[in-house]
Amino acid sequence: MDFLFTVGFSEELALLELSAVLGTTPKKVGEHQYKAHLSGGHSQMNYLSNRLGGLVEVHDLEGKLVWRHSAKAWYKRDRLKPYSDIHKGLLPPKVARMLVNLALGTTDPEGKTLLDPFCGSGTLLLEGGLMKLKLVGNDLDPEQLSGSRRNLDFLGLSAKLMNYDAVKLSEHLKESVDFIATEPYMGRPGVREDRLPDLAKGLGKLYLGCLKDWNLFLKSGARIGMIFPVFEYAGREYKTSLIIDDTKLIDYNIGTRGLTYSLPAARVKREIVILEKK
């Protein structure tokens, strides 16, 4: 059965998510609208629609609306959760959901384990929990972990939360991890523009150390959905994602890179990268 999927937010990112979950790229048939054949009919459509973060509406081929996202539910998770810190970054829930789905691909999330090594206030954990993933979160900041726990409780979700250096998780993690989705530490807020090149270099070293360590406990075939900051200074871009080409990360295949999104007037762009352990 064929359906018309209407995506919102960043169309390129939403299409990437839709394609990853479908396992194939749907055909564009209109503005922000894509046609996909689902062998499971309405049942599969409802499952996919409730899972996707970038989806707004679904119509049948006769133009009848058959599904619409709940703006109220997204607003609750974005604006009404008990803890947030604007100085630590505020990842939109829809982007968090899309990042989790990009890591999972066509895999059924129920019962699988998702790790966020830089969980902060728990936005990625919240979206993973609503998808029935088992959750493990880690952060160096005890206040952030406390806030993450409050936000999880707000939605009736549970997670194992840890307080370790993300570069040394292999020394402490006992759980088997199927997927990682994370927006890592991006530096202190208010960094002077002329120091952004040095910040990008330092963060690159941090991310390289993390990926080397995570390789020690990830299963073969496990995927990582990770956001890498891109800084601009003096007409030049400084990409922290360049480290994924390092020979020390030869045990990873690169699935997606180069797709960026940013809010209007943002100083930092965010690049979506998907890696898979060989």
From TrEMBL:
Annotated keywords: Cytoplasm, Methyltransferase, Transferase, tRNA processing
Location in or out of the cell: Cytoplasm
Gene Ontology annotations for the cellular component aspect, listed alphabetically: cytoplasm
Domain of life the protein comes from: Bacteria
Pfam families per record: UPF0020 (PF01170)
Single GO molecular function: DNA binding
Keyword Cytoplasm set for record: yes
One of the protein's GO biological processes: tRNA methylation
Domain called Ribosomal RNA large subunit methyltransferase K/L-like methyltransferase: residue spans: 87-218
Gene3D superfamilies attached to this UniProt entry: Vaccinia Virus protein VP39
Protein name: Ribosomal RNA large subunit methyltransferase K/L-like methyltransferase domain-containing protein
Provenance organism: Candidatus Collierbacteria bacterium RIFCSPHIGHO2_02_FULL_49_10
